[in-house]
Structure formats: C-alpha cells, structure tokens
Amino acid sequence: MKLKSQINNVIKDAFTKAGIEHEPMSVSEATKPEFGDYQFNGAMALSKKIGKNPREIAQNILDNIDLTGVLSKAEIAGPGFINLWLNPLWIGAQCQTALEDERLGISIRENPIKVVVDYSGPNMAKQMHVGHLRSTIIGDTLANLLTFLGDEVIRQNHIGDWGTQFGMLIAYLEMKDEDGSVSLKDLEQFYKDAKGEFDANADFANKAREYVVKIQSGDAHCLNLWQKFIDISLGHCEEVYEKLNVNLTRDDVRAESFYNDELPKVVEVLADKGTLQESDGAQCVFLEGDEIPVIVQKGDGGYLYATTDLAALWYRAEVLGAKRISYVVDARQAGHFKQVFRVAKEAGFVPEDVKLEHIAFGTMMDKGGKPFKTRDGGTVKLIDLLDEAVVKAKETINNKEDYTPEQVDELAKIIGIGAVKYADLAINRESNYIFNWDKMLSFEGNTSLYMQYGYARIQSIFRKYNAPIEGEIIIGDALEHRLATMLLRFEDVLSRAAVDASSNQITTYLYELVTLFMRFYEQNPILKGGIDEEVKMSRLQLANLTAKTIKQGLDILGIKVVDKL
RNA sequence: GCACUCAUAGCUCAGCUGGAUAGAGCAUCGGUUUGCGGUACCGAAGGUCUCAGGUUCGAAUCCUGAUGGGUGUACCA
C-alpha cells in the first residue's frame, strides 16, 4: 500500500478543485498523535508564490478536500499546517486487503530495472574478517529489498583472486605438496607461513615471482594450482555466507581475474579518446579538479584496481545491462569510486542514464571506539565472531529443558546471527559503529531480540486460539488506529530504504511497529474474557498482520524468525 | 598542505524531500500484575542539536567560516 501517495492524491484533487495551479508538496507523517496521522505543510510555502496568507490558502484547500474516502478529518493548525486524519473504515479495509495478500499488499514495481549490487568482495588470499561483515550484509539486504520490490537484481561478488600475492601462495602450496585441504584450513596461518618462507628463502621468493608471471601468461600447471587454491578459499567464504544466511552463491562470483582480458582494451579505449597521459612512466587519466590521477597502467605495464573496476563497470552496464550499479564498499574508498565513476562516464564505458553509486559504510569499532581487533592486535576472523555470537545467544535462552539439544542449537544460531546482523543494519551505515555484545543480545531497545520476542508473543496467541478467524478489521480506538496506520506505512518505508540503500530505516520502522503493538496489546486484550467476538476477530487479524509484517521485514534483512523463544 | 566525512541527553543511537514543544533505548528515580509470554507496559528527570554568522515566514537539517575527531592523499586492492 503506497499510503503516502494515496493521501497525496487527495490533496492533489483538493488543489484542482480549489483552483490552485501549483503542484502540491508531499504530505509527511504527523509529528505527534494530536496532530493527526499525516500533515500537509505546503500552504506556507505557497503563500509567497500566490501572494495570499498561508491560513487563507490552507482554508481554501480544506474547503475542497474530500473527507469521504481515505481521510475522515482535516484541520488547520498553527500558521497553516493542515492536519489529516485517516478514515478508520478505510484503513481497516486496507489492512484486511493486505492480510489477504501474500505480499502484504505491497505492489511490484511497474517499471523494474536491472540493478547490479556489488558486495562482500573477499580476498582469496585471506580469511574473511570482521571488515567484510558490513559489506556482506548491507549489500545482501539491498539486494533482497530490491528483489522484493520487483527489480531484477544481479548480485556480484567481486572476489580478489589476482595479484602478486598469489604467486607466493601457490608456490608455497606446491612446496607443501598436498591437495590443500589440510593446510588451507587456516588461510591466515597459511599466508603467514608462505610469507615467512618468502622472506627467509631467496630461492622460494624467486620461484614465487616466477609463478606470478606464469599464472598471468596462462601456464596450465600454475593455473591448476591457483584454481585449487581459489576453490578452497571460496569454500571458506561460502561457509560464512551459509552461517550468515546471505544469498550469495558461486554463480554470483565475478572475480577480478574475470576481467583480465578486458584490461588492455580499457587502456586502449582511453588512449583512443585522448584522455590518457603518461606520467612518470604510468598511464594516467587526469580529471579536472583532481590532483591525483587515475592510474590505469603501471610503469612496468601491470594493471591496477582502477583498471579492473573500469572493465567491471563496462561489463555491468553494457553486457549485463544494468541501469543502477551499487558498490557496497567501505567509506574509505569514496575517493577511488568518485574518480572511477567519472572516468567511466566520461569515457563512455557506462551510458549517461546509468546510476552509479558507492554505498559507503563506516568502520566497526570496539567499546573504546578503536577499530575492532583481537587482543593481540590482529584482525578478528568473521567465522570466529559468528561462532561466538551463537555461544552467547545460547546463554540467553531461558527454558532450555523445553527443547531438544538440537533445537537449542538451531535457536541459538538464529538468535545469535540475527542479533549480529540486526545490530549492524540498525545503524546508519555511513557512521562508524560500536560493537557491543551486551547491547545486541539484549531484549530491550531496538534489538533483534525485541522483534523476535514480539513476534513470538503473537505466535503464542495463535497457538492458544486455534480456530477459524472471520469477520472484518474494525478500528475501534486510538491505538488500533495507530497500529493499523503503521502497518500500512510498510511499503513507503521499503521504497524509501531502497532509494537510500539504508537498512536502518527498515529496522527503525520495525522497532516502532513492535513497540506500538506491545502497547496496543497491553491495553487491548484479545483472548481474555469478556471481549466481544467481533472485536476479538478484528484484533486477531491486526495481530496477524503485525506478525507477518515483522517476518517480512526481518526476511529482507536476512534474519530468520522463530515461533517460540 | 589539500580533499572527503562526522559532531544531537551521562552512554549508544534516531531524526526522511527545511515545518509545530528535537525523539528512542541503556543507566537513574518512581509506578502498573489474580499476568492473552512481565525478556512487558506507563511515568519522571535528563538538550544553548560543537561554536559563530548567513539564507528563510520557519534551520539539528541548506550555505560560509571556526574548532575538534575520523579517513583519503599516483604506480597495493
């Protein structure tokens, strides 16, 4: 239900009837319940354009506003605000419609576009660490969200599988002379060992360098080893994706190496356009206003990540046909993407109408506000963090004796992983955020457990009331009215979150929804004695729609729900 | 040096295209129960939105400057 545009239409009609030629600005949610459900603030803005005083304009709009359908009441307040009340009959009916629909009344985009979401992007030389968490889950949420709204989403995992370090790694793999399944269990250690050998053993170092060249020139033996290495390393990542409940598969992988053949062409095209300049032996594009050039080819002839990114942009826009390309990458790379996007547009790798965006996010910090590290200063492996979350989640489960050990484990997984993801997604992605176990595993405040608890509580109602539900949703009091309105806002929230790629708009909404439901439920009994049958039916349906909305919202965030906690 | 970014309650954070008395949670203090899941709900207290100007009928939000923090600054990705 596109609630806001429904209300906007009513205002628009009022404008037409009132003979106001201007396009009305959009209504917004009322800041307080006393001010109604929505408010229209456009009268003040119009006052100068039309040359009348705002209250007069507001009165004119008010006189022409239709109060028989969507709205039931409208009032002028203050300098010219128009406060709007939704019609209880109408919102009741709309909730009913939503409840009967699989998609909860949320429309599928009429003009869907192809969107590439580039996220996760682990380095095959190392194990995934906490730094990959945000890219992975923010990107996954964006992809889930756009898919749900009807866009054609192409997930792209731009893994780092190319570069000088791989010569060293496969040379070391060969030296160990085994299939890799043992020594690659701990990539971090393997990398360290290889590096140790590289530094200590000149013969090995030479061989490593030799292997870099061999891979790049397509030597079968080396490529074979390299492939084996990548397969195992990617397998580690997939374990993490599985644990994280993230929808990335091998089909989504377009590695750096995938673009190898295109790299010389990128440089050629730029040279043909005349945008290329040599500087200190390197091939560069100097952008107007930027001091630092974009280097696309090194002095020794090698290519750089900007080159690969340009090739990838071309591939995504021209081959895949994307109209929106979203890079979910650490905010520190803002400068890089700004430049690469400009070059891509100016050189025509990407058509003008394609939207390129860097979905930047901040760093994960520890309690002291420092970048998140292990006690000895190393990076925290993502898999360890997730396992710890599950262990800690287990401690929060109260009546373990009600479940089998397997059920407890399953529950702990859902709760623990959900808590980590929710805590991250609930923060405005652009700011750094402080990682805090106690906070994220708390049942209080804007946490996943509060949502889970709310959801489980509703499920408990339906376990108790196991009979057919008939009748209509009747909006009887103020809390029901607010709850129903909140439920109908879901699509507006999702649309907005899709534009801004901001998951925290979804979490904020869910938190408000659950809070509102808890209040509603506190004051409006459902299954207690003395409740009128019609009212009971109505409230059961509101509860049901609330639960479905929570579930759908968390599903987009990639978080599972459980019926019992 | 230059560029980008952030600054909101003791703490952690919301605040959408500028709108009415700036909102939550934690912590503090107080209240609600013969309890449909109290891991809940209600209330109190807590703010010169870093500072100084400007634009506007109207600014936490937009612009300029200052201060303080973070990040980036050509052949790594």
Describe the protein.
- The protein is globular.
- A 4-stranded antiparallel beta sheet has the order 1-2-4-3. Strands 6-5-10-11 form a 4-stranded parallel beta sheet, with helices on both faces. Strands 7-8-9 form a 3-stranded antiparallel beta sheet.
- β8 (282-285) and β9 form a beta hairpin.
- It folds into 4 domains: 3-86, Gyrase A, domain 2 (2-Layer Sandwich); 114-160 and 253-364, Rossmann fold (3-Layer(aba) Sandwich), CATH 3.40.50; 164-230, no CATH class; 382-556, Isoleucyl-tRNA Synthetase, Domain 1, CATH 1.10.730.
- By secondary structure, it is α/β, with parallel strands linked by helices.
- 52% of the residues lie in helices and 10% in strands.
- The protein contains 20 helices and 13 strands.
- The chain binds one RNA strand of 77 nucleotides through β1, α2, β8, β9 and α12.
What is this structure, in a nutshell?
The chain is 52% helix and 10% strand. It is α/β, with parallel strands linked by helices and 565 residues long.
Characteristic terms for this protein:
single chain; 565 residues; alpha/beta; Gyrase A, domain 2; 4 domains; 4-stranded antiparallel β-sheet; 4-stranded parallel β-sheet; 20 helices; 13 strands; 10% strand; RNA-binding
The CATH H-level superfamily of the largest domain is Isoleucyl-tRNA Synthetase, Domain 1
Query: Strand fraction band?
Result: 5-15%
Distance between the termini: 31 Å
Adjacency order of strands in the biggest sheet: 1-2-4-3
Instruction: Write the CATH fold name of the largest domain.
Output: Isoleucyl-tRNA Synthetase, Domain 1
Q: Which CATH-level-2 architecture of the largest domain?
A: Orthogonal Bundle
Low-pLDDT windows of residues: none
Q: What's the CATH first level of the largest domain?
A: Mainly Alpha
Taking all Cα atoms into account, the compactness measure Rg is 28 Å
